[in-house]
């Protein structure tokens, strides 16, 4: 018996299970490079991350529409899916991590300036390295915090039976 016959295949979510997911982290990378690049580049990375968030929310709305067919309350379920995904992604992928990396980099640049005699380019590159290396450590705590925040607030308003995946 083929091992593929034993497990039903799970549908791949392009926004969660593929390389596309990394587009949601574009603004964190932009914030890490803020000391080295024009600010327009940083804002461009926010545009990429926001486009990712919007596309994921629209995708979840379309999936909710298909899942609910012509059942009563379909419009509400689709709206809840879109709003929940958009708010969760905006907070967990753009706003909170962007702010966090911005502050980590600003603080490290300041502290390096006060505590070392390194030339400015070395301090800027070090700050960028610190910012980039911080990204993997902030993802899970931020995701869990946003889940808690939404479970304690917005999701109570619309009684979402299914929380963000």
Write out key terms for the chains shown.
0% strand; mainly alpha
Strand content: under 5%
Q: Residue share in helices?
A: over 70%
Structural class: mainly alpha
**Strand runs, count:** 0
Return the string of H and E elements.
HHHHHH
- Largest sheet composition: none
Rg (C-alpha, Å): 20 Å
Globular, elongated, flat, extended or rod-shaped: what is the shape?
Answer: elongated
Mean pLDDT: 90
Count, helices = 6
Roughly how many Å apart are the termini? Answer: 33 Å
Parts with pLDDT < 50 across at least 5 consecutive residues: none
Could you write a compact summary of the structure shown?
This protein is mainly alpha-helical and 165 residues long.
Annotate the secondary structure layout.
Elements: H1 14-17, H2 26-32, H3 39-68, H4 74-115, H5 120-151, H6 154-158
Helix pairs in contact: 2-3, 2-4, 2-5, 3-4, 4-5
